[in-house]
Specification:
The protein is an alpha/beta fold. It folds into two domains: about 180 residues, Thiamin diphosphate (ThDP)-binding fold, Pyr/PP domains (Rossmann fold), CATH 3.40.50; about 130 residues, Rossmann fold (3-Layer(aba) Sandwich). About 35% of the residues lie in helices and about 20% in strands.
């Protein structure tokens, strides 16, 4: 069992999916000869050839449109958008065609495509490279939004996304690409979509998070455990369709909830989780639901990036405030 990084797990899942299914096609800017801007597709061109690993022009709307056309004809395209800030050019295709294919054709056609893109702050890139557009994509009916937080989950969830008959936006936390390694078995076993993962069991407070913020949240949970605070940590993983049952059950046990995300606060996925807890779990809450988020501003340039990202101090403070509520 190899110890690999998250970006290597993405590469491993792509290679496994392509080996298992000749209908899987990889396409995007520089994904072939260069292996992608983060080398997530490194070696795939040599293994599977130029008919299945396609270097495209610098045209994100074209990439998404080609993928939808391929999917409608029975292929399973996995397209890469180099940075999430460039994914906005795909929105016309995603909203008007990918998400509506099954509905428009009354089930005659589906759109089994995956749109992969690295996202999130923390690697000091220039503008348009650090956004967290998870809520924007999650608002679109007809697509799934998946956001892994570790090499093992990236491998299993990407396999599941590729095998899904409907479109999936697969957001990859850039900050975690090479931050740590994990044992991953290349066995072709997918992880379930639409399910949360309980990473730590606890009794005092439920910490709900996803993507890159899972890393800091687990660190805080370990630090508080040494101080006698028992934190349950839930990785949402699939933001759309969301597994609220797991979150509600956890909060029913702990009575307290802190939601952690690096996306801006207003109209976020965190807001949706908090609203759902108010709708369906209000009587189990012992304290108001707390949210730890980035501010409602554009991600700053590298010098101020760490001031933008929520960190362990903010998570600690939110948990303490929640626990002290009487």
């Amino acid at each position: 069992m190899a110890q690999i990084t998250l970006v290597e797990a993405v590469n491993l899942a792509l290679a496994r999916a392509m080996a298992d299914d000749p209908e899987v096609i990889v396409l995007g800017e520089d994904v072939g000869r260069d292996g992608g801007v983060f080398r997530a597709t490194l070696g795939l061109l040599e293994k599977f050839g130029p008919a299945r690993v396609l270097d495209t022009p610098l045209a994100e709307n074209l990439i998404a449109g080609m993928s939808i056309g391929m999917a409608a004809e029975g292929l399973k395209p996995v397209c890469e958008i180099q940075f999430s800030g460039f994914s906005y050019a795909t929105i016309d295709q995603i909203i008007n065609h990918a998400s509506r294919m099954r509905h428009r054709t009354r089930g005659r056609l589906t759109c089994p495509m995956v749109l992969r893109t690295p996202c999130g702050a923390g690697i000091h890139p220039p503008e348009h490279h650090s956004e967290s557009p998870d809520a924007m994509f999650a608002h679109i009916p007809g697509i799934r939004v998946v956001y892994p937080s570790s090499p093992r989950r990236a491998y299993g969830l990407l396999l599941a996304a590729i095998r899904d008959p409907d479109p999936v936006v697969f957001l990859e936390p850039t900050r975690l690409y090479r931050l740590f390694k994990e044992e991953v078995i290349d066995d072709g076993v997918a992880l379930p979509l639409d399910s949360c993962f309980t990473l730590r069991e606890g009794t005092d407070v439920t910490l709900v998070t996803w993507g890159a913020m899972v890393y800091e949240t687990l660190q805080v949970a370990d630090e508080l455990s040494a101080q006698g605070v028992s934190c349950e940590v839930i990785d949402v993983a699939t933001l759309k369709i969301m597994d609220m049952d797991t979150i509600l059950a956890s909060v029913a046990r702990t009575g307290r909830c802190v939601i952690i995300t690096e996306a801006p606060r207003h109209c976020s996925v965190a807001s949706e989780i908090a609203a759902s807890l108010a709708d369906e779990g209000l009587l189990t809450l012992l304290a108001p639901v707390a949210r730890v988020t980035a501010p409602d501003i554009i991600v700053p340039l590298p010098r101020l990036e760490q001031n933008y990202l929520p960190g362990r101090a903010q998570i600690h403070a939110a948990i303490r405030k929640t626990l002290e509520f009487a």
